[in-house]
Amino acid sequence: MEMPKVTRRTFLKVSAGTGAAAAAAPRLLNAMENDLGGKDPSPVTGAERKAIPINCHVCNIQDGAIAYVENDRVVKLEGNPEHVSTRGRLCAKGNSGMWYSYDPDRILYPMKRVGARGEGKWKRITWDEALTELAAKLDAAIKEDPNTIMLKYGRQRTGGVIDRFMNTLGSATVVNHTSVCESSKKIGMEPTWGPDIETPDFANAKYVLNFGSNILEAAYFHNPLSQRITEGRVDNQMKIVTFDVRLSNTAGFSDEWVPVHPGTDGAVALAMGHVILRDDLQDSDFINTWTNVTVAELKAHYKQYTPEWAAKISGVPAETIERIATEFATTKPATLFTYRGPAKHLYGSYNEKACMMLPIMTGNIEKQGGYCLPRGMGWPQPSPEPGKPKKGSYLSHPPDYPLAGHKVSHLVPFWIAEGKQKINVYITYQDNPVYTNPGAMAVWGKLFKDEKLIPYLVSMSPFMGEETALVDLILPDCPYLERWEPESMPNSLWPWLGIRQPVHKALGESRENRVMMRDIIWKLDPDGKRGMKQFWNFKDGEDYMRHHFDNIPGLKEAGGLDFMKKHGVWPIYGKLNPKTGKVSDKTGREIKAEYGLFKKELSDGDMAGAAVGANGIISKNGKAIGVKRNGKNYVGFPTGNRIINVRIDQWAEYGFNPMPTFKRVPWHENMKDDELVMTTFKLNVHKQSRTAAVKWLAEIAHSNPMWINAATAAKIGVKTGDLVRVESKVGHLVTKAYVTEGIHPKTVAIPTGFGHWEYGRLATLKLKEKKAEWSHGQDDPDLNNVWWDDKGVHPNNIIPAVADPIGGSQGWYDTVVKVTKAGPNDKYGDSQGDWQKHYEAYKETIRYAYTGDLHRKMHPEMASWAGPDSVKHKGGGGH
Amino acid sequence: MLKAVLKIEDDEEVGAGETAAVLASPAETAAECRARAEVYHLLSGVFVEEPSQEFLAALRSPEAQQQFAEAGLKFDADFTAADADELMEALAIEYTTLFANSGGFPPVESVRLFGRFKQEPNFETMQTYKRLGFTLRPGRFEVFADQIGVELMFVAELLERAASALEQGDTAGHRRLDKEIKRFWTLHLGRWVRGYSQLIERTAEHSFYREMARFLHGFAVEEIEAMGLRIDDADQARLEVPKAEVRVEFDPDEPVCNGCVSDAIAGQGNAPGNVHRLHDLR
């Protein structure tokens, strides 16, 4: 038969009429890539790659992930479908995690400084040489005073190893990074209801108030919460209202974006509370039953916070406050979420408290679709454990900040400079305050370069960050794909235990943290006679994990560590439904979360030997275990009195307002026309300091122009791309402007994570911009394909220290700046801070501490407070 | 060891391409294999880790110095006249700067050709070592299988085996090993060592590494030619994608967050419903 002559076009036209037939034709080949997680074939051989479940640790959300390994090399990372919180999804950062392992700038051997601090001259030494030198320094420090050994950590998820190490050495000088993170959020919440964070049930809510959190891109807990808020928005027709100084993508996703003046979220929240209580929209039964105030007390207290008052402060119209308050109170269920927006201010703890009062007074606590307690799991520690150090540390528990249970780490350089505590050996672990803290190089760089203040500086790090570049000894730590760590994070309504396990052999001579610390102790106490070695009696990381996981009831029966190694997470609640993307039971329905945790009733066994006090507190062995309400014995909330403390009496003891209140940042009150508040934010593909060298992420985002409102920019004659000079009271920087309507007119915002001057060739682009100076004038072949020349500008040099006198948190969003068009002598990337000016800023901020002269002035309502000398529990407000 | 250097120089006098014809007998070929192995061992020792006192003492002996000079190597006084302890310290620091520190030039094939540690060359070389009966042990430090010193050491070992084969009359064994060496050069050393050694020659601040890198480059060129191989060096010659051809979703000179049209909100009355008019604030 002769075929008609047809063209390719004719063939293709056939498809227009045969689509349905094509769709109905049998398809026997399924792209294995399209299977729903858990498997991955090699595209070359077709062989199934080895899948190792882990917990991601690029950032700290702790997503369940799977590393696919071929020939001991990670070729792909994806979400773990068995993980109940993150349900098989992994963000861009998590997908890029293998760059940490294979980064060509990774430090693979111990290195000893041979030039001046920061000069960049190093000598590779053996582990034995490194441990011998360090042990000698530690030994001398212990003999003088163990507290002269300081360890400061940034991101640490060792599951207890850091404390074990420092307790073994006998030092209480352990400092974290939380004050530059979210500590005032924690301190706003903890005395109120126990935990330091909430779990908003976005998926089932009908109404959400979001104060200052970029849930879809960067928030704690970005991945799991962005899934749930999307479900609530799409499946549940939930309304979202976002209060933020900036039109983040979360604000854009919301039904309403309400721009607020920085630091005034608390005023808006209080005014909304005023409306709710004025209009009798509160849940009286919940307030009267489960809090330490009555409805009448609350109404009386909130009377002062009118919408008109808040409107003047925040810029949010009174009618908007009225409307949203009414909507929130009358729409059930409703929830609320905050993050740094309200908390990172001089009085961030008050702001946080004011926000969380809204779900409390409307009774949305622990309900489906409401504002829930976090769910987490713990694990036992290996025995024996070292006792706590006998003597306290000024730096760990600064007496001027007794309520700051998560410390005030960003003021540490000033305290060391003032001689508040002597340091002989400073050890840093996954920290980089020279970049991440206020003052950055101008403050921490100066501290670390001073060998009198810090005689010996050690970094446990796989990367040459800004801090590590200044140390005396580098011990090569393992990136997360090479470490053993127990994990649990309250990032959904289902509690889980997870594990991080090495997915490939550690590169070079890197040692994971717990092994490194064991080796230091073994060097100090080789024969065990000093009593230290007994606490470090484990063979390797896996052996250590057995102590954590092999004896947890339920998990033990499932296989303990072996189960964790195979699945990465426990329990397995159900199967990920490919149609809904939810973890479902055998019928295909989503596994339901448990609600009303505080209403669990105590068992007869629990009550045996317990006594019920006059206020209903059920105590046993000197500890409150529950609360009696309406004739029932409930477990209550994990506070000292098992109920919600709307009134925090401990705050009053230090002259702080124990009731929900708001304090405006004083220097924001009378800002001049040309003054703006500078804020910062995170982009979705970067974290604070450790992703700029991740090539895939750097290619997506590598520069950080400053957001400025169109009207504001017009006043100073600036358009997008223009260079601007940004000047604060402690320094100045020169960057590019990005002109947008998506930011409050009195605010500018600079994304963080850019403008590195260390952290490897990709982060710094030194090899591109200064060929003659770096790499001896040579081209790096890989960098030739880096098409961008802009690494961005880091803002922290010009941000002064501000400490919340209650929570200790850094006031990241309190900096007043002047923005002008850059002058002829201004160069893009300039960033200069001044130690003396930063020091003056520190002296100013401690005036707001309870011992400072401005404390009383800021609290006229506490006129009856008898002053700092009246405080009974001085020092050590720590947890 | 250094006689091997001269041996190569002697060979050059014979003339490139004539080696096989001139050194026809098994004994002479075996001797050449051993001489080549010595050079490989020497260069491996230079790059695999920081030089020891013993190694440096041998390299600085009058005999060695003369032979180096005759081979065209011109060490400065920082190598020839330095105190032994100070030299070892200086070279340890230079080694760290060049090869071990962040921002340096790891002498590792995976990094040079793939931009990352522990990529295909690492596993391919490891498999090759294993197939031919070698295991990799740490020296003073752990090293990657595709570290330059290890790759050179591997060829040295094969050459010694090839020499032994010839000495025992096993010409087939020699041929097989000769093929392995050529194959290894084609798949690995030949793809990066010439470019990389030139980079180190230009980069090194100490004359020891500068001259040794120069020596490595010359030796590699000679070896490739002598083996009759044609291999393109991919190091320092990687394809550069011109900026104009990079397809991006936005103008890289603009902020990454662009896309908002200010007129849509400001004064046009058609603001998106979810955005509050900013005049509320003023």
Please, could you describe this protein's structure?
The complex is a heterodimer of chains A (879) and B (282). Chain A has 879 residues and is α/β, with parallel strands linked by helices. Chain A contains 30 helices and 32 strands. Chain A has a seven-stranded mixed beta sheet. In chain A, helix 9 (265-278) crosses helix 11 (295-302) and helix 9 (265-278) packs across helix 13 (318-330). Chain B is globular. Chain B has 282 residues and is an all-alpha fold. Chain B has one domain (3-226): TorD-like (Orthogonal Bundle). Chain B has helices at 3-14, 19-22, 26-48, 53-59, 62-70, 77-80, 84-100, 109-114, 120-131, 148-167, 171-203, 207-226, 262-265. At the A-B interface, helix 3, strand 5, strand 11 and strand 29 of A face helix 7, helix 8 and helix 11 of B.
Write the layout of secondary structure elements.
The complex is a heterodimer of chains A (879) and B (282).
Chain A: H1 8-24, E1 50-55, E2 64-70, E3 73-79, H2 92-95, H3 98-102, E4 111-113, E5 122-124, H4 127-144, E6 149-153, H5 161-169, E7 174-175, H6 183-193, E8 199-200, E9 207-211, H7 222-235, E10 239-244, H8 249-253, E11 256-259, H9 265-278, H10 284-290, H11 295-302, H12 307-314, H13 318-330, E12 334-338, H14 340-343, H15 348-361, E13 371-372, H16 412-417, E14 425-429, H17 433-436, H18 440-449, E15 456-460, E16 473-475, E17 485-487, E18 497-500, H19 513-524, H20 541-549, H21 555-558, H22 561-567, E19 569-570, E20 575-576, E21 583-584, H23 604-607, E22 611-612, E23 617-620, E24 623-629, E25 632-634, H24 649-653, E26 675-681, H25 695-700, E27 706-709, H26 710-715, E28 723-728, E29 731-740, E30 747-751, H27 761-764, H28 766-769, E31 815-821, E32 831-833, H29 835-845, H30 853-858
Parallel strand pairs in A: 6-7, 6-14, 9-10, 9-12, 10-11, 14-15, 15-16, 26-30, 27-29
Antiparallel strand pairs in A: 1-2, 2-3, 4-5, 4-16, 8-13, 17-18, 18-19, 20-21, 22-23, 23-24, 24-25, 26-31, 27-30, 28-29, 28-31, 29-32
Chain B: H1 3-14, H2 19-22, H3 26-48, H4 53-59, H5 62-70, H6 77-80, H7 84-100, H8 109-114, H9 120-131, H10 148-167, H11 171-203, H12 207-226, H13 262-265
Helix pairs in contact in B: 1-3, 3-10, 10-11, 11-12
